[in-house]
Amino acid sequence: MRLLLVEDDNHVAAALSAILGRHGFKVVHARSGEEALQALLPAETEPFGVVLLDLGLPDQDGYEVCGKIRKRSSVPVIMVTARADVRSRIHGLNLGADDYVTKPYDTGELLARIHAVSRRKPVGEETGPTPVAALRLGHVHIELPTRRVSVDGSEVQLTRKEFDLLALLAQRPGVVFRREQIISEVWRTSWEGTGRTLEVHVASLRAKLRLPALIETVRGVGYRLVAPSA
């Protein structure tokens, strides 16, 4: 797999490239946001499987770079940040990032996250017919084929994983989904470290839909969707 490493520190990039190389990745190093965007331009070379994006870049804000990447490519993006607060993580996810790691990170954790995002496939893009075209739950309308969500007729912009999570819960309202089950079906992995990412996505969905009670936390078990009244 080709991996685009966006990192302005040459020493960090060299060490990380060596580790990733030993695990079978073909690493392309970009030292700035502009280099990263140029590397993602359409070309005859093998496409990138993952972008590892450090937010501390010399020429552009890493969040801005993420937004530009998402406008031109669906390649999975993992943000690398020293900001551990939930608000910063939600901001990154809203811009289209698929995951994040917080510095300092364990190499094994990073590799697990890279493998996890590289094999994810959004709900509604699997092979075979879609059994249900749309779901209406009170004020919320979900169109599975077009991956569009609206509340009271107003469209809500969701990231890929936010939509996948909402679509999963909405297809069986009232049913409690275990955290492990959600991670398996939405993130296509059983790795336990994805749990924190799930919490951030749930918080982001509640805020975007402006229906904080829509997704109920079942303590010690998981989550369920509580259909709002019309």
UniProtKB/TrEMBL annotation:
Response regulatory domain boundaries: 2-118
DNA-binding region: 132-227
Keywords: DNA-binding, Phosphoprotein, Transcription, Transcription regulation
Modified positions (4-aspartylphosphate) in chain numbering: 54
Chain ranges passing through the membrane: none
Keyword Transcription regulation attributed: yes
UniProt superkingdom: Bacteria
Xref: Gene3D superfamilies: 3.40.50.2300, 6.10.250.690, Winged helix-like DNA-binding domain superfamily/Winged helix DNA-binding domain (1.10.10.10)
Residue stretches making up the OmpR/PhoB-type domain: 132-227
CDD domains linked to this entry: REC_OmpR, trans_reg_C
Keyword DNA-binding among UniProt keywords: yes
One Pfam family hit: Trans_reg_C
InterPro entries: CheY-like_superfamily, OmpR/PhoB-type_DNA-bd, Sig_transdc_resp-reg_receiver, WalR-like, WH-like_DNA-bd_sf
SMART domains: REC, Trans_reg_C
Protein name: Sensory transduction protein RegX3
Organism of provenance: Streptomyces laculatispora
